[in-house]
């Protein structure tokens, strides 16, 4: 029996397969795992809420980008709320509960665009 190409680190792609795994490790060291988990949970919550607000499947949500780092850079919750409301201008359902929930969830979060120094 022969091993499939690359199975034992030989052949095309064998050695390259380890590259992405190593890079992923660096990312989790660079950024706090807890913050990454919080951000992932937040993104899942946002998608769930948007599917409810737009009454559609995830793939059918209108093209809009809620940039959490951008919101965190803003001075006040009023400014953040205005920005999110602006993004949801096409939504026909009330958005106040979503905006309020989003602001509660991002309060205390850290930006991911600049890694923490240890």
Automatic annotation (TrEMBL):
Family membership: Belongs to the PP1 inhibitor family.
Cellular compartments per GO CC: cytoplasm
Gene that encodes it: PPP1R14B
Official protein name in the record: Protein phosphatase 1 regulatory subunit 14
A Pfam family reported for this protein in Swiss-Prot or TrEMBL: PP1_inhibitor
A GO term, aspect molecular function: protein serine/threonine phosphatase inhibitor activity
Ranges for region Disordered: 1-26
The protein's role, per its UniProt record: Inhibitor of PPP1CA.
GO BP, one annotated term: innate immune response
Protein keywords: Acetylation, Coiled coil, Cytoplasm, Phosphoprotein, Protein phosphatase inhibitor
InterPro entries, per the entry: CPI-17, CPI-17_sf
Hydrolase among keywords: no
Keyword Mitochondrion appears in the UniProt entry: no
Main location group: cytoplasm
């Amino acid at each position: 029996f022969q091993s499939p190409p690359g199975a034992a680190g030989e052949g095309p792609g064998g050695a390259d397969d380890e590259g992405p795994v190593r890079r992923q490790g660096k990312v989790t060291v660079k950024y706090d795992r807890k913050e990454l988990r919080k951000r992932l949970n937040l993104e899942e919550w946002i998608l769930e809420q948007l599917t409810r607000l737009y009454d559609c499947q995830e793939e059918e949500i209108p093209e809009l980008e809620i940039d959490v780092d951008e919101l965190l850079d803003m001075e006040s919750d009023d400014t953040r709320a205005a920005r999110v409301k602006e993004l949801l201008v096409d939504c026909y359902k009330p958005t106040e509960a979503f905006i309020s929930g989003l602001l509660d969830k991002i309060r205390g979060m850290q930006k991911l665009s600049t890694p923490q120094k240890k």
